[in-house]
Amino acid sequence: MSGEQKLERTEEEWKSILPEEVFRVARLGGTEPPFSGEYYHHQGSGRYLCACCGKPLFSSEHKYDSGSGWPSYFRPIDAEAVLQHDDTTHGMVRTEVRCAGCDAHLGHVFPDGPNPTGLRYCINSASLSFQD
């Protein structure tokens, strides 16, 4: 994170400051239902920030319609914006994506995206806010 310190709060602190759905998804690792998130069809120009700490994560320039039901991006805003971890929950092997600024659960990354990266960052709208 290029010298930045990670924002750390207790679960109770996060719970007291975040809306219930943001807390459930971003802090407890939940998933919003497909095709339901605020940013799935969103077309504005700007940046998508972490809903917990405000760190810039994704650019509208890298957003595309994957048809998956969640906002999708072919790359993060920069290489240090997100962290990736192996996720073997629910009987699957996936790569979880977390905010490098506060460790919020964002979603998962898959190797079936478009050029130039071939990646699909499949991100929960509840974990994001938007800044134009």
Summarize the structure.
The chain is mainly beta. It contains two helices and nine strands, in the order ααβββββββββ. Helices cover 11% and strands 29% of the residues.
What's the CATH H-level homologous superfamily?
Peptide methionine sulfoxide reductase
Strand content: 25-35%
The number of strands is 9
Order of helices and strands: HHEEEEEEEEE
Helix content: 10-25%
Strand order of the largest sheet: 3-4-8-7-6-5
Class computed from helices, strands and strand pairing: mainly beta
The total count of helices amounts to 2
Mean pLDDT: 95
Largest sheet: 6 strands, antiparallel
CATH architecture: Beta Complex
CATH class reads Mainly Beta
Structural domain tally: 1
Runs in which pLDDT lies below 50 for 5 or more consecutive residues are: none
